[in-house]
């Protein structure tokens, strides 16, 4: 590590002000940022902790929308969305291990936009909305590539809004050591449409598999995607799996998610 200033503001306004200082960076649960600092991949002069800010907490159903505070931990999401949003609860319960789930936050995960993070798949499938201290950003506009989002410097995710689906499920093929998805697929069924969000596979980060969405909208069953194939072009390839393997897994995980959706 290295020397840096640490500030823990008690309100959202105070956090926004602190982040206006040169080289200041927000700190959520620290599950991604702290290892990054240890490796000197980032060296901010000040960390601004978002823990303890009341405006960033809370999970509640508002009509047909689920609102999740940006500071909500994975553990809280897993517990408090049971019976409300089955797919999201399942997803959160399988992130990392208990230590990670008790520290990591949804807002921090989405702000970092790791190409193998789980939440982006849920946000993309539901066509949800990221709410910040200044505006609202639709999912399809929010994600802009690996580790890249529409967030501007100093902008803080205050909450995330998910339109509640009739049925949902998340399936991921885990990399055993990290528990990140080699490929993860989130499926959300609504009255007139189906969303399919894919994470861990593409070199461009999370994406919606639109061909599968169209097929499943007409027949919400695993066999609806039997005749569909995902191109290996643009898929990630590394020691864990080739581009062709990842492309194949997208279809496999989609069929499993549809079969298990509730």
Structural commentary:
There is one protein chain. By secondary structure, the protein is of the alpha+beta class. It folds into 3 domains: 5-49, Uridine Diphospho-n-acetylenolpyruvylglucosamine Reductase, domain 2 (2-Layer Sandwich); 56-114 and 126-163, Uridine Diphospho-n-acetylenolpyruvylglucosamine Reductase, domain 3 (2-Layer Sandwich); 167-260, CO dehydrogenase flavoprotein, C-terminal domain (Enolase-like, domain 1), CATH 3.30.390.50. Helices cover 31% and strands 23% of the residues. It is built from 10 helices and 12 strands. The chain has helices at 12-18, 33-38, 74-80, 86-93, 98-103, 106-112, 119-126, 139-142, 210-218, 243-260, and strands at 5-7, 24-27, 46-49, 59-62, 65-69, 129-132, 136-138, 157-163, 167-174, 181-189, 194-199, 207-208. The strands form 3 sheets. Strands 4-5-8-6-7 form a 5-stranded antiparallel sheet. The chain has a 4-stranded antiparallel sheet with strand order 9-10-11-12, sandwiched between helices. Strands 1-3-2 form a 3-stranded parallel sheet, with no helix packed on it. α3 (74-80) packs antiparallel against α4 (86-93). The longest helix has 18 residues, at 243-260. The chain is globular. The termini are far apart. The model has no long low-confidence stretch (mean pLDDT 94).
């Amino acid at each position: 590590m290295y020397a840096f200033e640490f500030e823990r503001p008690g309100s959202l306004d105070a956090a926004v002000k602190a982040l206006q200082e040169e080289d200041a960076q927000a700190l959520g649960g620290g599950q991604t940022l702290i290892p990054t600092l240890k490796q000197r991949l980032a060296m901010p002069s000040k960390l601004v902790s978002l823990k303890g800010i009341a405006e960033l907490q809370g999970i509640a159903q508002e009509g047909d929308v689920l609102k999740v505070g940006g500071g909500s931990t994975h553990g809280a999401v897993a517990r408090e969305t049971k019976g409300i949003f089955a797919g999201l609860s399942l997803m959160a319960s399988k992130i990392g291990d208990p230590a990670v789930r008790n520290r990591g936050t949804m807002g921090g995960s989405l702000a970092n936009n790791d190409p193998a993070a789980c939440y982006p798949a849920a946000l993309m499938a539901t066509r949800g909305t990221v709410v910040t201290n200044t505006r609202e950003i639709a999912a399809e506009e929010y994600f802009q590539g690996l580790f890249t989002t529409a967030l501007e410097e100093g902008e803080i995710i205050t909450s995330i809004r998910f339109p509640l689906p009739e049925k949902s499920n998340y399936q991921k093929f885990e990399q055993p050591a990290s528990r990140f998805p080699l490929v993860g697929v989130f499926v959300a069924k609504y009255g007139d449409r189906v969303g399919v969000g894919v994470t861990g596979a593409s070199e461009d980060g999370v994406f919606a598999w639109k061909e599968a969405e169209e097929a499943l909208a007409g027949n919400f069953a695993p066999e609806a995607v039997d005749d569909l194939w995902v191109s290996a072009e643009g898929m990630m390839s590394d020691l864990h799996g080739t581009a062709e393997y990842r492309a194949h897994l997208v279809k496999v995980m989609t069929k499993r998610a549809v079969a298990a959706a509730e």
